Amino acid sequence: MGHSSIQAARIAETLVVKPLKERIEDLALFGGTPAFPQKVHVGRPNIGDRSRLMARIGDLLDRRWLSNQGPYVQELETRLAEMLGVRNCIAVANGTLALEIAIRAAGLADEVIVPSFTFIATAHALEWQKIKPVFCDIDPHTHSLDPRQVERCITPRTAGIIGVHIWGEPCATVELSEIAQRHGLKLLFDASHAFGCGHRGKMIGGFGEAEVFSFHATKFFNTFEGGAIATNNDELAGRIRLMKNFGFVGYDDVAYIGTNGKMSEIAAAMGLTGLESLDEFVAVNRRNYDLYRQGLCGLPGVRLFPVAEDERRNFQYIVLEVDQEQAVISRDLLVRLLHAENILARRYFYPGCHRMEPYRSQAHHGGLELPATDHVCARVIVLPTGTSVSAGDIESICGVMRLALTHAPEIVRRVPA
Asked: What residues contact 70, with CB distance under 8 A and at least 6 apart?
């Protein structure tokens, strides 16, 4: 489907409006018909122009060059580096592997400070390499590392900090950079949510020693499965390139310890195709964000996490915070109600890495108090968006939310705790 065909499909979808639920008995939780006949996911893949994707796949099959730094991977790396404004961008098989390789290439060891409010892979990438993740609390307003708390977590064993750009909003890069420099620490960023986002007049990708991206299918820009490491440190980039290909420096010369982290040609073909539709993906996400903002406006106890609009953003997450005291209904009951309607809202990043295994059972994490993290983990809901979600879908989702919050006291009385 070409760009114009995709746009025509989006316009057609906006004309399909489902009947809104009006009574509490209409809710699927109480026997009503679900708002959606099929499950609506938070992140279904954006595809882009299928004809161009299939042409690329046909080309790579004809050439029989499927992996090992083929021409599509090389082209993708070049285009990504240009877009991000960095000297080096190394494509790899997935975002978790990108984290692991960046951590090892940067020489991190002993202890590294990370937020607990992040996807578990951020912590696992350290633990997998016998590096202790030191979980630090967040700023409850930004959902990112609180620099004041980072200072308190530093010990003689601290080797580095990994900041996470949650929801595509940059974390406190200046403050974290100052802390890292003052204490002689390495600073990396997990930018899995922030591809295509800007910060302080430049693209995210060039901050710290390196920034890591995920191109998983659920991300608004995907390569089926994949990731990348962006850095302006040429020496670090050289190590990363060695490490992603078993340490080979020539045909039969291994000079460094490494692994198989290479991105495939078919993944790169998907990435190149997605780049061509990137502006449209963002435009749909932005439209969806605005529709949710309108549809949820005025609901008691519900706050839409704000997206900064003075710099470039990808708008790929619709994040709500539910204040149970004001909303009456709990976040978890609201999620249960939405799931009954086949709206698969998610509790990101519940319950926090420090409350997941193996960390919660480790002595050095036992009884860890992260009040801001716990507070946010108990309130956040992420709602569906992307090119698979129409304006009519959003109207239905907001209608369910409005009905639930309008009748929250009755729902709470009728649903056993």
From this structure: 60, 63, 265, 268
Range of the domain at 309: 3-44+278-345+384-414
Q: Each residue of 143-194: pLDDT tens digit?
A: 999 999 999 999 999 999 999 999 999 999 999 999 999 999 999 999 999 9
- pLDDT tens digits for 278-326? 999 999 999 999 999 999 999 999 999 999 989 999 999 999 999 999 9
Model pLDDT for residues 73-89, shown as the tens digit of each residue: 999 999 999 999 999 99
Using CA atoms, how far residue 47 sits from 270, 353, 394, in Å, is 8, 31, 20
* pLDDT digits 0-9 by tens, 108-130: 999 999 999 999 999 999 999 99
Is 356 inside any structural domain? no
Angle of CA points 249, 107, 118, to nearest 5°: 115
Q: Give yes or no: residues 215 and 268 share one domain.
A: yes
Q: Say how far apart CA 417 and CA 207 lie, in whole Å.
A: 46
Domain boundary pick from 276, 295, 310:
276
pLDDT at 11 over 60: no
Q: Is residue 97 part of a domain?
A: yes
Could you give the 3-state DSSP secondary structure of residue 201?
Answer: coil
Same domain? For 202 and 335 the reply is no
State phi, psi for 78 to the nearest 5 degrees: -65, -45
Give how many domains the chain has, as a whole number. 2
**Cα–Cα distance list, 284 to 9, 14, 244 (Å):** 12, 11, 34
For the chain, how many helices (H) and strands (E)?
15, 12
* Adjacent-strand bridge partners of 202: 199
Statement to judge: residues 271 and 292 lie in one domain:
no
Examine the domain organization and report whether 269 and 318 are in the same domain: no
Name the DSSP class of 190. Answer: E
Q: Taking the complete model, does pTM exceed 0.90, yes or no?
A: yes
Q: Does 77 share its domain with 96?
A: yes
